[in-house]
Amino acid sequence: MERLCLIFCIFLTHCYASEEDETSSSKLNHTKDHGLHIAKFDFELVQTPYLIALWILAASVAKIGFHLAPSLNTIFPESCLLIFVGLIVGGVLAFVGENPMSLTPHTFFNFMLPPIILDAGYFMPNRLFFDNLGTILLFAVVGTLWSTFAVAGSLWGLSSWMGGFGGKELPILQCLLFSALISAVDPVAVLAVFEEIHVNELLYIVVFGESLLNDAVTVALYEVFEEYAIMGPDNVSAFEILKGFGKFPVVALGGTFIGIVAGLAIGFVTRLTTNTRVMEPLVIFVMAYLAYLSAEMFHLSGIMAATFCGLTMKNYVRANISQKSLTTLKYSMKMLSSGAETIIFIFLGVSTVNGDHVWNTTFVVATISFCTLYRAVGTFALSWIANHFRLEPIGGVDQFVVAYGGLRGAVAVALVLLIDKNATLFDEKLRSMMVTTTIAVIYFTVFVQGMTIKPIVEWLHVTKSEKRKPTMNERVHEKTMEHLMTGMESIAGHMGKYNLRAKLRAINDSYIKPYLQRCENGVDAKDTKILETYSKLMMEDMKTVTIMGPGGKQLRHQDSVMRAKKRLHIDDGIGTSDTNEDQAPDVVKMDELLEKGLQEKNAYRRCSYSRHSLQDTDAQAMLDLRLNLKSAPARKKGELAKMRQWKTVDVEDDGAHCSMLLQRRCSEGGQSSTTDLNKKTPKKEAGRPPRSAPPVGKSSVSQFKFDTASSIPEDDEENVFEDGPGAMKRSGSLGNIN
Amino acid sequence: MGSRPSLLLRDEELAEIQKETGFTANQIERLYSRFTALDKTATGALSREDFLRIPELAINPLGERIVMAFFRHSDEDRVNFRQFVRVLAHFRPLKKSRANALNSREGKLKFAFKLYDLDDDDRITKEELLAVLQMMVGENISEDQLMSIAERTILEADSDGDGMIGFEEFCKVLDRSLVEQKMSIRFLN
């Protein structure tokens, strides 16, 4: 939020200079009367933040409004509507005589773009991205290069053939500069449109990845051509051109390097935040932002830096920070990015009204058609190349959508406004013409392509994505397949993607993870993904249960019991002894979770204010903890049997206790919480087997109960007192959990 | 490449393998050189030890299972080149033009299924699933948890209620997963 505020500070300070004059004259009046004012009007005092807040409010209201009008949303993509609102606002401001503020490149690159890119990098499906990295890079690097040079060449050719556009001769270097900025597909616009249409994963990642990674090419080309344009065509020697070629890998790899370093640093820092949970999201944001700024400082690709920072930190951060912090992180990231995106589009509209425009139909039409044409040609040619190396070829329909989905956006506007006056030979008219044309291209791609892409996707029957969580089976079997493929690749002596991934994972596990990931949680299980899926599914079960209430639980219970019975019936001959207990963990877990859910409501009431901590009793967190905390030694078969036997007792006990709890809860209603808790705690202690139980017998069931108990907030003194012997242990384990 | 003399296969044998597996001659040639490289004893067949000597395979949690898959259809404890290629043919990318029983979706799924199914009775029991889970997830997770995961997995897939996952059930739960792509290797030419 601070960042958003800052954004506006910058522009509003100069844009509202005129208003300041008015207010300062009113200030003069104030100084005349000397009496004490109980209240007085002093807009100047709050002007800048006030206007910023108003802008954000306007953007939010516009966004909220569109989502309330369902019919509007089906026809227009949101970005179109936002630009439209911007146009209206700009028009009104211009009509009133207020100079509408335009989106300054400085504001855009420093404050608006980073949250969007970081968000994109953080929520990037890593797997998908790296699986298709070759294709993405091909499109981003070769595609952008091709498009830049082809558009520039064609524009220059047309210009010299026609004797210039509107009497303006367009020299080759200015052509190149212009086409470098107009050829880059814009991550903001692409994301905004593709978010809504849910195309299939492959299509999404190709367009999305391209829009992120082509920034490296764009930055390099833009700066190189700007330099050349300033130097003038006569001074560009072969050596300079060679240096230009050298710039590209430096910009791309440098940005990536900074991003990765920052991501690792974030991992390291969040490893140490056990006692300062509230600082976690802040540290992450600030460090990621610094990565972006550092890259920009060296004129490297900030977009690449932010993307790779998000990609890198994701894994470590997820394991390190608390569940609540993670939720905060995700939500604030989403909030910042969608806020910034909304504001960008509105400002795009506003800044269209503003500024001197030089419209040249030939130039505009030529640019739009060359851009579209070469994008299509490039996409088809590159897909043809890519399909020779891909297991899953990019189909013709998909190719079309990739070509058609190459939207241009605010990055182009910001870049065109940034063009150095020297680079356009001090020709204001030429500059204005470029600005106008850039805006025209953006309007064309965002409005025409953005509005038609949805019907086209439907009409062409492009496979849509189905967003869903993997089922347990998919997770387990896909994991198996992965190991199988890794094995097969190594047998066939082929260094394929599976083998590569296995290698990287091994390096990460042995050299990087131990330093960056909190390890006191004992997260050295090899495959946490399976556990993660499991805990997520359990969570969902819990949610349905809590929503459906006790009745629902009963239903569920019956269902699983029925299944268990059914199975028992069939299994009878083979494994009689096992079946009953095997069903148990599932049911038990439901009970535990349910109990947990009830307890949480109690925790609500005992909330006390603290600036430094929140009560972190998230059921999901507990579940994660429970799944991760385990560093139980491997058990031998015999011990296991003994343990199971013991567990059944506990299980039955616990189940009965839980249903009792439930019944009581139902009868007493919502207000019973405190008394309920008082009764509950000793009860649970009683339900627990004596402490002299063999250490092996410490099954996950009791362990979980233990965790649950310790999740009760620290300030709950009565609980500690009541618990007697258990209290010591609990307070001991508190440190681990919070 | 193109080092024909190094290939000790007769032409008709090559053609046969080509027909059976769908590999191109170049791919077979490449695989043959890999085969001979693995065959340390130079007996023209691979033993379990030959496989397990591959460093990556030795650390693969399912390494032994994968090696077992090679020996599934041979009574001996050695695998000759044809058997070797036949197993690998399951992982040829599926292209409509060159479909074949081995690398079809079903063939691929069957192969994965057989990794679990130790006793070859076309069913994955809870114990079999648990064994694989243990290999993959590692020792640090308690057996109860793995057991509940296995439970849940079976419960989810088990549509006929026999407490096991049959092959049809296995195919059904993986309906939406892109097995054709996941279980393919782009064998080099």
UniProtKB/TrEMBL annotation, chain A:
Signal peptide: 1-17
Region of interest: Disordered: 666-738
GO biological process: regulation of intracellular pH; sodium ion import across plasma membrane
Keyword Ion transport: yes
Polar residues: bias regions: 699-711
Main location: membrane
Transmembrane parts of this sequence: 50-68, 80-97, 103-124, 136-158, 170-194, 250-270, 282-311, 331-351, 363-385, 397-419, 439-460
Family, similarity comment: Belongs to the monovalent cation:proton antiporter 1 (CPA1) transporter (TC 2.A.36) family.
Subcellular compartments: Membrane
InterPro entries referenced in this protein's UniProt entry, alphabetically: Cation/H_exchanger_CPA1, Cation/H_exchanger_TM, NaH_exchanger
Annotated Gene3D superfamilies: 6.10.140.1330
PANTHER family according to UniProt: SODIUM/HYDROGEN EXCHANGER, SODIUM_HYDROGEN EXCHANGER
Keywords: Antiport, Ion transport, Membrane, Signal, Sodium, Sodium transport, Transmembrane, Transmembrane helix, Transport
Membrane topology: Multi-pass membrane protein
GO terms of molecular function: potassium:proton antiporter activity; sodium:proton antiporter activity
Protein name as annotated: Sodium/hydrogen exchanger
GO CC list: plasma membrane
Cation/H+ exchanger transmembrane domain sequence ranges: 57-459
Extent of Basic and acidic residues compositional bias: 677-688
TrEMBL record, chain B:
Subcellular location: Cell membrane; Cytoplasm; Nucleus
Keywords: Calcium, Cell membrane, Cytoplasm, Lipoprotein, Membrane, Metal-binding, Myristate, Nucleus, Phosphoprotein, Protein transport, Repeat, Transport
Principal location class: membrane
SMART domains assigned to the protein according to its UniProt record, in alphabetical order: EFh
GO cellular component, one term: plasma membrane
Biological process, per Gene Ontology: protein transport
Domain EF-hand: from-to ranges: 104-139, 145-180
Gene3D superfamilies, A to Z: EF-hand (1.10.238.10)
Segments crossing the lipid bilayer: none
InterPro entries: Calcineurin_B_homologous, EF-hand-dom_pair, EF_Hand_1_Ca_BS, EF_hand_dom
Molecular-function annotations in GO: calcium ion binding
Family: Belongs to the calcineurin regulatory subunit family. CHP subfamily.
Protein name: Calcineurin B ous protein 1
Lineage start: Eukaryota, Metazoa, Ecdysozoa, Arthropoda, Hexapoda
